[in-house]
Amino acid sequence: xxxxxxxxxxxxxxxxxxxxxxxxxxxxxxxxxxxxxxxxxxxxxxxxxxxxxxxxxxxxxxxxxxxxxxxxxxxxxxxxxxxxxxxxxxxxxxxxxxxxxxxxxxxxxxxxxxxxxxxxxxxxxxxxxxxxxxxxxxxxxxxxxxxxxxxxxxxxxxxxxxxxxxxxxxxxxxxxxxxxxxxxxxxxxxxxxxxxxxxxxxxxxxxxxxxxxxxxxxxxxxxxxxxxxxxxxxxxxxxxxxxxxxxxxxxxxxxxxxxxxxxxxxxxxxxxxxxxxxxxxxxxxxxxxxxxxxxxx
Amino acid sequence: xxxxxxxxxxxxxxxxxxxxxxxxxxxxxxxxxxxxxxxxxxxxxxxxxxxxxxxxxxxxxxxxxxxxxxxxxxxxxxxxxxxxxxxxxxxxxxxxxxxxxxxxxxxxxxxxxxxxxxxxxxxxxxxxxxxxxxxxxxxxxxxxxxxxxxxxxxxxxxxxxxxxxxxxxxxxxxxxxxxxxxxxxxxxxxxxxxxxxxxxxxxxxxxxxxxxxxxxxxxxxxxxxxxxxxxxxxxxxxxxxxxxxxxxxxxxxxxxxxxxxxxxxxxxxxxxxxxxxxxxxxxxxxxxxxxxxxxxx
Lengths: 297, 297
Prior knowledge:
By secondary structure, chain A is an alpha/beta fold. Chain A has helices spanning 5-12, 70-80, 113-116, 135-138, 151-166, 194-207, 231-239, 253-262, and strands at residues 19-20, 28-35, 40-46, 49-55, 58-65, 90-96, 101-106, 120-122, 131-132, 149-150, 175-181, 184-191, 221-225, 244-247, 265-271, 274-279, 284-285.
C-alpha cells in the first residue's frame, strides 16, 4: 500500500502548535555620553530587560534579554532546560512587556517541576546562566545526523555573517548566533546574552515544520556563534540536532570534550578563509582549500 | 583617653579570617587542530572545569570555571549572592580538584538558605549565571565612596592592562577583570566566565585587611573588565564599594540605569586614549585631555 502524501505531510507536522504573542520592544536606546575631550555626544546602547517566565502561573526564572524574540526565547529555554520534551506540550506563550512577563500555559503541566529545577549549574560566562542539572548525563543519548561540513559551505556561512553584520547598525555589546540550512541563513539572532540567542534559535527551530534534510553530502543544519564554544553552546547545538558549529572565537576544554563525545564537528577562529577544526575533522570535507598565502610560500 | 594603636590595627582586621586551601590545576591544555589547509597543528585552549560548591555539606551550585583561584571565587560567589554578609561567617573553604568540589564550612550556618536560593535570576550573557533574587532591591542601600576618577588614572589603568595582556600567552577565550588601587594593579583575574572573574576579585578583596583609602582627590578602587558593563557587573562593582568601572567594551541599558542609580562612574570603549563616559561624568576629572587628533583638526 502506497502512503497517501497528505498523510505523510500531516505526520511531519507537530499536531499542535502553541499559540504565541508577538511582543516587541525597542532594542536600543540613544544615550548621552562624554568623551575623552569632555565633549558630549550620543551613542546607541542595547536594551537589557528582565523577562520573568511563569509556567502555569508558577514563577520559574528571570532572564535578562535584549527582547527581540521573547516567545521563541521562552520556548527554547524550556526545551534546552529539558523542562519540556516538545513544544506540543505548550498551549500558549503570552509575553507582556508592560509587566516584563512571559506566561507559559502548558497542556498537562510539567511533571515534577520543583524537583527538576532544584539542581543548579551555573555555566561558563557567556554560557547559559543557569542550566538545571543533568544535561551532561543526556549527552550519550544524542544521535547527531550524518553528513559533512563542506569547506565551501563553511566559507559561505562566514561570508554571510560578515555581510549580515555590516548591515546591522551596531549598538555594540551584543552577541550574535545564527542557524544555517545548508549555506542559507535561516535565522540570525542577537542578544545581550548569547545563551539567550541560542535558546531563541532552539525555540524557533522547534516551531519549524520542515523535515530534516541532512544528508551524507552536506549537513543541512549548521550553527554559527560570534562567541566561544563553551560546553553549553556545544551541548545546546547537539540538542538541536546540529552536527557542526562554527565560531569566530575559540573553544574551551569542556566544549571540546563534549564535541568529541557526541561526534560534533567544532570549528573555531573562523575569519575570512582561516579556521581551526577542533573536533571531528573527518566530518569536514576540504573541497575549497585556499591557495597558499604569500607569507606561507 | 588616647586609643592604643594596636587596638586600632586590630579593629581594622577582620577578627576571623577563613582557612583556605590553595588548590591549583592546569589552566590550559594543548590540543591538536586542523587548519584550512588540512594541516595538523597544536594550539592551547583554556580549561573549563566544574566546581560544585557545598555549604555545610549541602550542595549549593556548580560553577564552570578556568580554576585559577577557586577559593577566592567561592568566597566571592557567596558574598555576591548575599548568602554571607562577611567572610568572617566562613570557617574554611576546602577545594579538591580530584572531586571538583569546594566545601565551605560556616561558623553558624547560613540562615534560611533554602528560601534565599529559591529565586533565580539568569543574568545577561557574560554576566553571572545565576543571581539569587533581590539584588536590585539592595541597590539603594549602597553608599559608594567619595572621590573622582582622574583621566590620567584612567589612562594609566588602560595602559597597565595593555602591558599585562601582552605578557599573557593567550589561549584565547577568556575574560579578564582587574582591580586597581589608585593606578596600581592589585589583582588581575582571567576566567572562562567573567562573572567568575569578578566574583574572584570580590573574594580576594574581602580578604584584604587594608583600610579603604578612597579620598576626594582620587578614587582608590577602580574595577576594569574586558567585557561589557551589564547590570550585573555594575551591581557587583557597587557591592564591592567600587565607584568607578572601566570597560574596553560598551554598556547595556540596565547597566547604565544601575550606574546612574548608585552614582557610579561608568566608562566604556576605553582603548588607548579614547573612552566614553556613560554615567556620572561629574566624577571624572579631565586632568589629561589629549591634544586634538590630526583628523579632528
